Amino acid sequence: MNRAADYNNSSVGRVEKQYYSFAHPPDRLLLESGAxxxxxxxxxxxxxxxxxxxxxxxxxTHAFSGDSHAAGYYQDEGKGEKPGWWDAMIGPDKGIDTDKxxxxxxxxxxxxxxxxxxxxxxxxxxxxxGLDFPMVTIGDMVTAQKALLDHLGIAQLHTVVGGSxxxxxxxxxxxxxxxxxxxxxxxxxxxxxxALAIAFNEIARQSIMADPNWNDGNYYGMxxxxxxxxxxxxxxxxxxxxxxxxxxxxxxxLQDKKxxxxxxxxxxxxxxxxxxxxxxxxxRFDANSVLYITKASDYFxxxxxxxxxxxxxDIHQGKIKYLIVSYTSDWxxxxxxxxxxxxxxxxxxxxxxxxxxxxxxxxxxFLIPDDRLSNLIGGFLNGIA
Amino acid sequence: MVLPDTEKIRFDLQIIGSTIExxxxxxxxxxxxxxxxxWLEKNKNVQCTGxxxxxxxxxxxxxxxxxxxxxxxxxxVDDYPSSSFDYVILSQTLQQVFEPAKLLxxxxxxxxxxxxxxxxxxxxxxxxxxxxxxxxxxxDQLPYSWYDTPNIRVITLKDFRKxxxxxxxxxxxxxxxxxxxxxxxxxxxxxxxxxxxxxxxxIIEKTAIN
Lengths: 385, 210
Description:
The structure holds two protein chains of two kinds.
Chain A: H1 3-10, E1 18-22, E2 29-30, E3 36-37, E4 40-47, E5 57-61, E6 90-91, E7 96-97, E8 102-106, H2 138-152, E9 157-163, H3 165-176, E10 181-187, H4 195-209, H5 226-240, H6 243-249, H7 269-282, H8 287-299, H9 303-308, E11 321-327, H10 335-347, E12 351-357, H11 371-382
Parallel strand pairs in A: 5-8, 5-9, 6-7, 9-10, 10-11, 11-12
Antiparallel strand pairs in A: 1-4, 2-3, 4-8
Helix pairs in contact in A: 2-3, 4-5, 4-8, 5-7
Chain B: H1 11-19, E1 25-29, H2 35-44, E2 47-52, H3 55-63, E3 68-70, H4 73-76, E4 85-91, H5 100-110, E5 111-119, H6 124-133, H7 157-166, E6 169-179, E7 186-189, H8 193-196, E8 199-206
Parallel strand pairs in B: 1-2, 1-4, 2-3, 4-5
Antiparallel strand pairs in B: 5-8, 6-7, 6-8
């Protein structure tokens, strides 16, 4: 893709990260665990223009290691700068058309990309929280997003859309604030983690906690648990890919060599790729945030609350129009988990569309530019009254 | 995307569309590109859902704003609460269904009325082909050879009348039509329907048990 042409014609252009702080003590935010947190800051970005009727707002919820920077560039020309993580989807004339919709993307609570998380300063100790940060749930992330929308004066969401852990937030929105949500697009997600998903998360956490630098989470201002975090990311990356994608991209090809080293250097391309991904990640992400967010996703289980929600259970609830998308090669949240969600939505009287997309890229397929997903989402959004 | 006009959709779908009450709830099984659903939404303000096995067709339907689930119709019908729909439509698919009696029972559970259409195997041209050539008949409606056909059953209008009675349904309405596949032109057949109709359309409902 021609970056310059892309920037000029179909980019939201220059964007700015904004912050909203609330829950200042003593009015702290009550968390699902019963603990309290305050003050809370949520970093967010917006694209497009809010209509006079305030009825064109689309909330984009990001995945585990994502951030509020879903589209556009931070610098004027965008030269040499990577655009936001869903820039292929969000912009003028794209799947989520910023000429029509006002898009908000908040960074999740517990993260390290501008919102309050374990790396933020604890007002009681004046140092970073570390493990004193209370456990936050996907529901708590959504409660914090609701506070942001209240602050922005937005009472109606045209659509909530997100993939993976972003999809979990979409489902929480539909359960907690159904009266605010007209349409929902949970992508490559699940109503609850399987043992397989929890298992990989636990390996990631153990890898961080086994790093001597982790020091029970007190490493801020000192040597950080980079090795543990890098290995955690390597494991994560394997779960985001698929057998097919890894065969196609790497196979058994060797990295810059013709023969085995007969040692423990990165001989295979896949080894070198994972090391690279691990190293890249430690420069932008906080190990404690990985612990908190993975645990939040493991605790997430909306099977019962989804079954109790919906217009057939509560005549005062309007129908939410759902579009569920899964990917053939996603082994983290396979299609059978999307089908369980569809069953629940049918039983509770919701309006549901579903499409499984053929892709060999695994769980991360929704982040890869693909006209099929853009057309699907664009057309679906158009059809919402 | 421009929605199709009345004249443009398949003739059998025009007939089915004309029998549906405005403002009703409709489930279309094997909805293809969603032409009937789009027509019903536009002209009769119907709340539509479609089920389509083919991923590209299902995606096309969703992209034109329709509520469509991609999946196997035999499985997808099981999850809806009873009487979720005023009409459940099974058009030109019955001849491909593995367990028709089981499927019809599921459809009668989730729909108040079931509309079924299928190609009529007792059309005179089919009878003549078998009689004169001694080979498995082919027609515009059933164009496949015996070895590559997706149509695992052949059904005649008489067969279906008996079948619906046997599995506990009352035929509310029978419309025999003469049209070609994918054609928007055709006419209703009134005389000698068993011989002259290329398709039968039946509106059936569960026989009330006293």
